Amino acid sequence: MTNDSDLLQAVGHGIGWFDSRAKKLIATADDLHDHVGTPDPWTYLQAKALAGDASDTIEGLPRVGIPTALKVFGQHGGSIESFYAHVEAGKVDLKKKTLGAIASAAGRATYERNMKLMDLSRAPVLRASDVTVSCEPLDEVVFSDWVEHFSLQAILRNVGQFIEPFIEATRRPGQRDLEAAIARLGT
What we know:
Strand 1 and strand 2 (24-26) form a beta hairpin. Helices cover 51% and strands 5% of the residues. It is built from 10 helices and 4 strands, in the order E-E-H-H-E-E-H-H-H-H-H-H-H-H. The longest helix is centred in the middle third of the chain and has 14 residues, at 105-118. By secondary structure, the protein is mainly alpha-helical. The radius of gyration is 20 Å and the shape is elongated. A two-stranded antiparallel ribbon has the order 1-2. Strands 3-4 form a two-stranded antiparallel sheet.
């Protein structure tokens, strides 16, 4: 449950994405296609790596958004790898600014850097011992400072709206029992 589109890359194999603000559920390949223009989370991630992510202060390529990247992929085999193969085979008109930018050394470097930052499959595996669950009173000032430090602009725009579902969850009956059960996972 998040409105962070980075996590759309996880859709599939029993995992859905629910935006609680927009009340939108993406649970199938068709849902993903309707939402972002491709049924494949990997292709979406590649397009996002070219486009960048302003909310996470990750710079993309100029004039390349997700729809443009998906269009380029569609015209050149369906992925960034097939696009690069078409470039190497001389099948891409590099005089077109957008195609030239994607194919350039700088464009490839931007893509690779962004994949390292965005590809959640590259994240370390968490063990139960790595997770601490607690329910302390929220210090909104400290939280806001932390969010600002990491430039999480989408949260900064409305910290109260972001934290409300978490505060509400702590009010639910059984929440303490759930926290205790999660804490016992590591023992």
